């Protein structure tokens, strides 16, 4: 039995806001609520000064939701609604100015990789596209901003904490020709992947402006799934060239992708196109091709929205095992048809001046 969004909201309405006296839903601080199967995710948008007083409410909301039948996982992230505080271990430095989107120094283009829902392969596409662009000779950065589960360090086979010799700027890591920084690298490996402090927005700004990206032709930003504060902060703080939406052919994923597209349009971020992932299954034994999740849905949706379908990526065991092993398929099986789909995507973006 899966839980409904209304049932989740009912539970949250029973949790008091320790500051305003109302419940947390009426207080308007529950944001970006997504319910997918047994996974409930939302953001508590709060004044950073109230973080400690809000913690019991966060814990209560989490515990009550966990107790609901049909709920397996609950992720609650507290974010600052106004000022952007610093993550704890950096002393500040080149603080970004609060007004308007800015250019990240040395970075020619910023392209967001987004999806309407989780698990459609957004991070896999971002990692392989980054490696494929590097193979085309582009100077590529990858910023993993997926707060719910930063996966790029594992996919690109980097570990360890990035250094900050001067306490002001952060040195990114590098592998497979890609310069990488991940929110996940700011937390300890054994820490929960959920950001429990109102530090998220500040952390994203630091990732953009305090990481020594060097000269880049393109910085790919792997966003969290859905529409939410990270997407908004990115568009507000940085000059984003555009967004690429990854979707599977399933209708439900398409519907969610539509919501993501609407949000980017509202923020004035151009949609560069869509990518269909898991388009066709290629059997790793016999090479037989099968459209497990249907076919053509993303192409039709892209046409309806008037944006190009940039690539159709097959569903193939190699793509998963390569990512799990820390060397994306473009790096580990460069000549395979599954790598070719990413290489062609990279060449297309370069040819169109988008990368
Ligand atoms: N084309 C593909 N073929 C085979 N496996 C794939 C493919 N794309 C993604 N996967 C696998 O599907 C799983 C989910 O992919 P991934 O983590 O990239 O999704 P995501 O959209 O970034 O999810 P989330 O945002 O929830 O982290 C991973 O195990 C990944 O290896």
If you compute it from the alpha carbons, what radius of gyration comes out, rounded to the nearest whole angstrom?
Answer: 20 Å
Which series of helices and strands comes N to C? HEEHEEHEHEEHEHEHEEHEHHH
Number of helices: 11
Biggest β-sheet description = 9 strands, mixed
The CATH topology assignment of the largest domain is Rossmann fold
Note poorly predicted spans.
82-94
Shape category = globular
Can you identify the CATH superfamily of the largest domain?
Answer: P-loop containing nucleotide triphosphate hydrolases
Q: What is the CATH architecture term of the largest domain? A: 3-Layer(aba) Sandwich
**Total tally of structural domains:** 2
- Measured by DSSP, the beta-strand proportion falls in 15-25%
CATH class of the largest domain: Alpha Beta
Molecules bound to protein? adenosine-5'-triphosphate
Instruction: Give the CA-CA distance, first to last residue.
Output: 44 Å
The overall pLDDT average reads 84
Helix/sheet category: alpha/beta
């Amino acid at each position: 039995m899966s839980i409904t969004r209304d049932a989740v909201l009912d539970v949250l309405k029973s949790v008091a806001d320790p500051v305003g006296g109302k419940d947390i839903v009426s207080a308007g601080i529950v944001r970006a609520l997504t319910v997918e199967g047994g996974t409930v995710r939302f953001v508590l948008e709060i004044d950073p000064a109230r973080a400690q007083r809000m913690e019991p409410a966060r814990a209560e909301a989490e515990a009550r939701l966990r107790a609901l039948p049909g709920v397996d996982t609950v992720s609650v992230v507290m974010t600052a609604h106004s000022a952007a505080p610093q993550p704890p271990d950096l002393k500040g430095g080149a603080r970004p100015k609060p007004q308007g989107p800015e250019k990240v120094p040395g970075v020619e283009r910023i392209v967001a990789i987004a999806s309407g829902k989780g698990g459609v392969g957004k991070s896999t596409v971002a990692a392989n596209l980054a490696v494929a662009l590097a193979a085309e000779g582009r100077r590529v950065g990858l910023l993993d901003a997926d707060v719910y589960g930063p996966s790029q360090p594992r996919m690109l086979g980097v570990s360890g904490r990035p250094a900050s010799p001067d306490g002001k700027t952060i040195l990114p890591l590098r592998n497979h020709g890609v310069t990488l920084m991940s929110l996940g690298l700011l937390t300890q490996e054994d820490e929960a992947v959920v950001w429990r402090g109102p530090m998220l927005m500040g952390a994203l700004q630091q990732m953009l402006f305090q990481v020594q990206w060097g000269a880049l032709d393109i910085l790919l930003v792997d966003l969290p799934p859905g529409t939410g504060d990270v997407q908004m902060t990115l568009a507000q703080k940085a000059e984003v060239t555009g967004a690429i939406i990854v979707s599977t052919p399933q209708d439900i994923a398409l519907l969610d992708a539509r919501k993501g597209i609407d949000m980017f349009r509202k923020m004035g971020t151009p949609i560069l196109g869509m990518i269909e992932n898991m388009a066709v299954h290629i059997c790793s034994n016999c090479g037989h091709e099968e459209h497990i999740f249907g076919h053509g849905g993303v192409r039709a949706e892209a046409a309806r929205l008037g944006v190009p379908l940039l690539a159709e990526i097959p569903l193939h065991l190699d793509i998963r095992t390569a990512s799990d092993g820390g060397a994306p398929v473009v790096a580990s099986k460069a000549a395979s048809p599954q790598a070719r789909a990413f290489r062609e995507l990279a060449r297309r973006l370069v040819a169109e001046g988008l990368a």
